[in-house]
Amino acid sequence: MKTLQVTFLLNGFEKTIVSAPNRTLLDVLRDDLNLTGAKDSCGGEGECGACTVIVDDKAINACMILIGQVQGCAVETIEGLAENGQLHPLQRAFVEAGAVQCGYCTPGAILAAKALLLENPHPSDVEIRDGLSGNLCRCTGYVKIVEAVRLAAAEMRHA
Amino acid sequence: MPETITIGKSELRKDAWKKVTGAARYVADIPLRDVYYGAIVRSSVHYGHLKSIDTQTAEQVAGVHKVVTAADVPGLPVFGALVHDQPVLAVDTIHHWGQPVAIVIADTKEIAAQAAQLVLVTVEPILPILDPVEAVELNASKLHADGNLLAQFEIKDGDVELGFAEADVILEETFSLPLVSPAYLETETSVAQWNSDGSLTVWVSSQHPFVDQAEIAAALDIPAEKVRVKSGVIGGAFGGKEDSSISIMASLAAWVVQGTVKLVNSRQESFWAHPKRHPAKIYLKLGAKNDGTFIALKAKAFVDTGAFASYGPAVGIILTETLAGSYHVPNIELDTLVVYTNGPLAGAMRGFGSPQSHFAIESMVDMVAHQLGLSAIEVRKKNILREGDQLFTGVIVNQSANSLPLALSHAENILREFEMIEAAPGKVAGSGMALVMQSMGLGAKVPDDSTHQMIWMPDGKVDLYLGAPDMGQGLIMTAEQIAAEALELPFESVSTVDLDTWNSPNGNVTCASRMTYMVGNALVDAAEQLKSQMLVQASRMMNRPLDTLSYKSGNVITSDGGKIPVSEIISRAADDGIEIQSKATFSFPYPDETTPQNLPIGMPHVLFCFGAQIARVEVDPELGKVDITHLTAIHDVGRVISRKGVEGQIEGGMAMGLGYALFENMNLKANGQWVDSFTEYLIPTFNDMPLNFRNIILEIPEESGPYGAKGIGEVTVPPTAPAIANAVYNAIGVRATALPLSPEDLAKL
Question: Which of A35, B122, B155, B347 has the most CB atoms within 10 Å of its CB?
Answer without folding.
Answer: B347
